[in-house]
């Protein structure tokens, strides 16, 4: 399978980078083609310019490549920390520019944009790995776990991805090296279960 792996974290020594590396290694060991993007390292420009909003806009080469890869992917893996209940801005901008009409979704027939679009992504499954410093019960009751709805409903659900597995590694700031090593094993296991070895 062809898997698009997107990482949004500025620190190469972060747990997020280690999770993405574990995911990439597992996918490659299982015979998958990995299209990997470290958005900070490649300095992905998160600002959606006005000229890119129209359905048939001409896109700069890097954005066009991201769109092509998203459209061709059989699966997606997204890795990012919880920042204010949101993805880091670079990843929010990636969604703005890459999950675009004609690539990720489309309004059809008489629907001028007021209705429910159809999802266009070929991928039928995705994994979202998040890291957090908030205890699970507080995240649910006080904040409503916004990342759960953002990824499962607002983004991937709308773009046609049926099966979304989200896993949160917490609490990072008090975690031990042993815990973090176990988390990387968990990440590898979830990736292997979602994207089993190629036959
Ligand atoms: C700008 C910023 C905003 C953050 N907001 C939250 C938050 O809303 N909830 C939370 O649990 N942690 C929050 N954190 C903590 C990060 O989630 C935590 O540092 C990260 O998950 C740890 O992973 P890492 O070691 O890969 O950086 C925030 C951190 C930063 C830098």
UniProtKB/TrEMBL annotation:
The keyword Oxidoreductase applies. It comes from the Bacteria. The keyword Oxidoreductase applies. It is an enzyme of class 1 (oxidoreductase). Residues 1-170 form the Flavodoxin-like fold domain. Signal peptide: none annotated. Its EC number is 1.-.-.-. Keywords: Oxidoreductase. One of its GO terms (molecular function) is oxidoreductase activity. Belongs to the NAD(P)H dehydrogenase (quinone) family. This is NAD(P)H-dependent oxidoreductase.
